[in-house]
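Our working data are protein records whose layout never changes between entries. Getting from the letters to the tokens is the skill we practise here. To make this concrete, we reproduce a full record directly below:
***
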Amino acid sequence: MSKKDCWILSDNLIGHEKQSVSLAEKLNINYKLIKIKKINFIRRNLSNFFNLEKRNFFKSPYPKIIISCGKSTAYYSKLIKQKTKNKIFSIFIQKPPISLSNFDVVISPKHDKCKGSNVIETQGALTKINSKYIENINKKKAPSILKEKFIGVLIGGDSRHHQITNIILDKIIKNLKSIEEQKKIRIFILVSRRTSKENYLYLKKNLISKNFIFVLPKSKKVSYLNAISFAKAIIVTSDSISMVSEACSTGKPTYIIDIPTKSKRFSLFIKNLIDLKLAYYLKDSISLKRKKKALNDIDKVVKKIKKRLKFDYENL
């Protein structure tokens, strides 16, 4: 059976886009990435004054499948489905801001508490990363800088739900120093685009041992994917559902740096992973022993979608 064509509606948020692309690639479908404009709260909720149908934003020929992720994309997806008289199979990732009936499949993490006959529940964010994916990378020759044993540390940044204060940074520094002393191992600290310059410099100033190696987002020597693939264990801040999901999907021992939050969604997300023993809270010591369990939401999701599409699972 030939590959089906697909539109991915992107709101330009990297985390959302990565989930959609990961799903399309796992479904083995050709996709076109379409960037849409975000719709603010007023325009979303005053639909009588916001008539997308008068726009020529989307033109035929239309695809067989639409994948969208993020609140704004839900409204565009609904419009396209209406224009095609429901002839498009629409997949939405996350909890939609509109009725579930506007989509054929909704993929929603458990912490969103989204219930419906067309809902596929996941534990975290969708990612192409799983144990097999990591094993395939490990079969390749590791970059020279990563040949010695090391631990990978993924540092996020402030958001509307989290704030990484100096008090939190001091705890991170204390724990990492303790681990480095116990394990006598190199520790690669990967800062993200969301990591503030102040936090990066504070960590670098206080982690001066040669075993602490800092990696910036655009590093040409160490890629994010290689770092999490060849690491013996991963330590990750709790502020990014995407980053934590990827860490837990590697099959590597995963430890979470708990950043306090008032968000019940984030708290429930982390609690679920801890309860499932997919991750542990970071203390002053860790194990480098490989886990028996790993997060693998996307394979489960793909099987269910293929079944609903009534395609042969092996030949889609």
About this structure: The CA atoms of residues 16 and 70 lie 6 Å apart.
